[in-house]
Amino acid sequence: MATTFILPGERVRAQHVNLKLGPGLLQHAENDQDTKIISTKAGELQHSANNSKWWIEGNSKRYIPAPQESVVGVVTARSGDGWRVDIGSAHPAYLDGLAFEGATKRNKPNLKVGSLLYARVSLAHKDMEPELECFDAQTHKAEGFGELKGGFMVRCSLKMCRLLLNPNHFLLPLLGSRFPLEAATGLNGRVWVSSKETKHIIAISRCIESVDPDGGGMDEAGVHQFLGTLDI
C-alpha cells in the first residue's frame, strides 16, 4: 500500500467506480462538472489494494465516525425505541431497536446499560449524531455484529486497530496458534477479546497494548519472548 504524507486542504486524486472515503477525506463539489476530494487533516494518505477505499492515517486520539466503519460500543442509555451508545466520538451514537437481523417491533434485543456491541456506522455527518446498525448492509444478516457477551474490551490507538484488521498482521494469528480466542476489532480504538480462560484474555490484552505503536511497538520476536514468560 503506497503511503504519502498530506496536509489539510490538499486535493487527493482518488478515483474508483465504488469509491469510499474514510476519515480525513471530504468530497467537495464546486459545480456539476468539478468534484474534488479534499483532505481535512494531516497524516498519511492510505488506500486499499484495489484503490476503492481511501483514508488518512493520523495520530488523532479521538475517533471521528465514518460510514461503514466497524466499532465497539458501550450502551449508555435507552432512548425511545433504541439506545445511546458510546463509541468514543465527540457525541454518542444512536442504535435503533430494529437495526438487528430479524428484529421486529415485538421482537427486539433486550440490551442493558453497560452492554458491549459490535456495530457498523450507518450514518456519519458533522452536523448530526452518528447512527449504528448491527447487521451487514447488503445481506441484512448479523455477520458477527450484535451484542458481545463476556470477554473484555481493550483500549488502544486508532492506528493499532487498523493494524489488527490487516490480515497480514502477525499478532492475532500468533495468539490464535497458542490458545482459542475470539476478537472483534473496531476502528474506534477498542478491541473486544474473549477466550476460555481468564489468563488467556489477560495475555491477549497485554500483547495488544505492547504491540500498539503508541504503547511500545513490540515486534513479533518480542511477543514470542513475552509469551514465553507467562504461565499459559
From TrEMBL:
The record places domain K Homology at 151-198
Q: Which GO terms describe its biological process?
A: CUT catabolic process; exonucleolytic trimming to generate mature 3'-end of 5.8S rRNA from tricistronic rRNA transcript (SSU-rRNA, 5.8S rRNA, LSU-rRNA); nuclear polyadenylation-dependent rRNA catabolic process; poly(A)-dependent snoRNA 3'-end processing; TRAMP-dependent tRNA surveillance pathway; U4 snRNA 3'-end processing
Where found, per UniProt? Cytoplasm; Nucleus, Nucleolus
UniProt KW keywords = Cytoplasm, Exosome, Nucleus, RNA-binding, rRNA processing
Please verify whether the record's keywords include Transmembrane helix: no
Record-level GO cellular component terms: cytoplasmic exosome (RNase complex); nuclear exosome (RNase complex); nucleolus
The protein depicted here goes by the name: Ribosomal RNA-processing protein 40
**What positions does the domain Exosome complex exonuclease Rrp40 N-terminal occupy?**
19-62
Name the coiled-coil region(s).
Answer: none
Which Gene Ontology molecular function entries are recorded, alphabetically? RNA binding
Keyword rRNA processing (UniProt): yes
Return the similarity comment: Belongs to the RRP40 family.
Q: Which residues cross the membrane?
A: none
